[in-house]
Structure formats: structure tokens, C-alpha cells
Amino acid sequence: MNYKILARKWRPKNFSEVIGQPHIIQTIKNSFLLNKIHQSWIFYGTHGTGKTTIARLLSQVLNCTNKKEIYQACHTCTNCKDIENKCFPDLFEIDAASKTKIEDIKELLDTIKYIPIQGKFKIYLIDEVHMLSKYSFNALLKILEEPPKYAKFILITTEIQKIPKTIISRCIFLHFKLINNIEIEKYLNKILKLEKIIFEPSALKILATYANGSIRDVLNLTEQMILFSNQNITKQKTLNMLGMLDKNQVLKIIISILQKDSLKLIKLLQKIYNTNISLEQIFTKILKILYDIIILQKIPEYYNIDRSSEYYNTIFKISQNVNYEELKKYYKIILYGKKKIHLFPNMRIGIELTLLHLLHIVHDKIDFVKY
């Protein structure tokens, strides 16, 4: 069974397919257009943001013999195919996390004195470069100071602070940003339609948020979700798989507190206890919703959300009826309870006592017909 996981199947084939890194792509394209291709590059950013993918694309463009454009590989010539199949003799791709010793890096760098076997350039792609030892960095530095014209170095890292400044100063430094949720949602929408998977747009919002800016993570999560949901991705199934709280559940908890309805509050918590949801989320979700209410109250023009949604209408009503000082008290009490939760006999007791404490903040009751 020749099955390809989504992360590999939909890996960008050229720079135009890369999402979320326009500043990186523009820098690389201009390097080719101006014929000013640096000897050494550092790609820095969190995992799953496209560092290794772009490094391989750069390797292809540098060695392609039949370019469509000056900065676009053809993917049909021998060099392009060999790089895609990971059998190109002039591409040295190593994981520094497993090769940290000076002997490993010396063995690699010993190959630099020989001219390329097949391509125009020899490419040294060192992933997790921050894992190299001090002596390995010193050996690498000597090469970076005066590399041969046919050698290019691409150093990839998630921890730039661990790389010596002497190395950084000899490289073009490119910072890969987290992909924003809107771009991730659009990307998933496109892929799932092409894969002919049924989905609810609200489920994609949850997946995008959970992935925290990582394309690789969101594709892996989506693949897991396809299997879990039997190719019918819904909001509720996504919440169940991830063990996440629906913000509307948490909003009901906040409303019960504002209404000073302790019985309703405990019943809502009991429903959550009967699920597989991690209880730590309750305080975190409440804090996020309180943040939304405060921002909506103090800086309404900054608040970016669908203003026709029930969620918006509800928190707007809260923002109009509860003053800022009271909201700050709620926030501080929840934050303190979250910090001290480990001191309670168990998490349920800590959550309940903290939330019941909020009932004693003085304000007028708010009438919520919907909830």
C-alpha cells in the first residue's frame, strides 16, 4: 500500500507554494535575481514552519540544470529528482542532534576540498545545528570564514541563542515566523477539498489554533482527525479527539458566576468532569475569555472576531455590564488559583473553591436569556 502522509504529499514543490513566510521567499528570490547568493544561511524558527522544506528547495534551485525561472527548479532534471529522492551526491544533510562530536563534523567538512561530483554546488544542510559541541563549532567556523566558491551552507535551528555569534555573523540570518491561524485554515480548506474529505470550517479553526503556528503539526493533527472521524471532520469530534473545552461551555461557567448561581456553576463543572477533558484547561479558557471581554471593553477597534456570532454578542453584553475593575479582580483570582492549584487536595476542589470565590465579587446580576 503506497500511502503518503499529508505532510509529505503536500510539501511545497516550489517557493510559490510556501505559505506564511513571504519575507523569506522574497529574500531568496532577490538573491537569485541579483545574483548575490550568500555562502552561508541560518534558518531560525520554531518547528514545522518550513525551514527544512525551504532549505531543500534552495538546494534544488542552486543545482537545477533546467530552471523554469531563475529562482524556480524544474523538478524534472536529474539533479532535481536526485535531491527529491535524497540521493544527490553533492547534498550533505545531517542531523546535528545525533552527530555532535568533533570527529563527525570533521569527517563532513573533509569532503569540502573536493569539487562537486554532479551539481554546480555542494550543499551542506545541518539541521539542529545548535546541538554541535564547542569544538565542532570551531571547526565549522574555520570553513565559514573562507569557504570554496562551490560550497553553500544552510544551518537550521530552533534555538538561535545557542549558536556562537561568530557563526551567526558570517551567515545570512532568516527568521521563520509562526504561521497565522487564518493562513493555516485556508491551507487546510484547500487540502481537504482536494482530498475529498467532509469537514466543518469551525473544526479547522480549532485545529489551526491547537497547532500553534506549525504547518507540520496541523497536517499531522488533520491526518489523525481524518482517521478518528472516518473522513467527516466536525467541530465536536475535533474537540473530543483533542480533549479540548468548547469556549461556549466555559462562557456558560462565566455567566453562572455573573448570575451568582452556584448550583448551575457546579452542574456545569460536573458535565466537564464526566468527559476526557484535561481540567487544567478550565482556568486557561476562562482567562482567555476574560481577556477578550477586557479588550472588547477597552479597545473595541482592536478586537478581531466575527461580530455576528453568539460568542461576540454575549461577551459584548458582559463588557457593557461589568466594569473594568471587577474584570481585573476576576482575572487576578483565576490567575492566583491556577498558580496555586497544586496546593489543594485535588484539582476539582481547587477549581470549585476558586470559582465559588468569584461569586462574592459585588456587581449587579446580568440577565442572559440565551444561556
Describe what this molecule looks like in 3D:
This protein has 371 residues and is of the alpha/beta class. It has three domains: 170 residues, Rossmann fold; 62 residues, Helicase, Ruva Protein, domain 3 (Orthogonal Bundle), CATH 1.10.8.60; 112 residues, Zinc Finger, Delta Prime, domain 3 (Up-down Bundle). Helices cover 51% and strands 8% of the residues. It has 17 helices and seven strands. The strands form two sheets. Strands 2-3-4-1-5 form a five-stranded parallel sheet, covered by helices on one side. A two-stranded parallel ribbon has the order 6-7. α14 packs across α15 and α16 runs antiparallel to α17. The longest helix is centred in the last third of the chain and has 19 residues. The radius of gyration is 26 Å and the shape is elongated. The two termini are 50 Å apart.
Which labels suit this protein?
two-stranded parallel ribbon; Helicase, Ruva Protein, domain 3; 17 helices; 371 residues; alpha/beta; single chain; five-stranded parallel sheet; Rossmann fold
How many domains make up the 3D coordinates? Answer: 3
The helix-strand sequence is HHEHHEHEHEHEHEHHEHHHHHHH
The side-by-side strand order for the widest beta sheet comes to 2-3-4-1-5
Major sheet attributes = 5 strands, parallel
Number of strands: 7
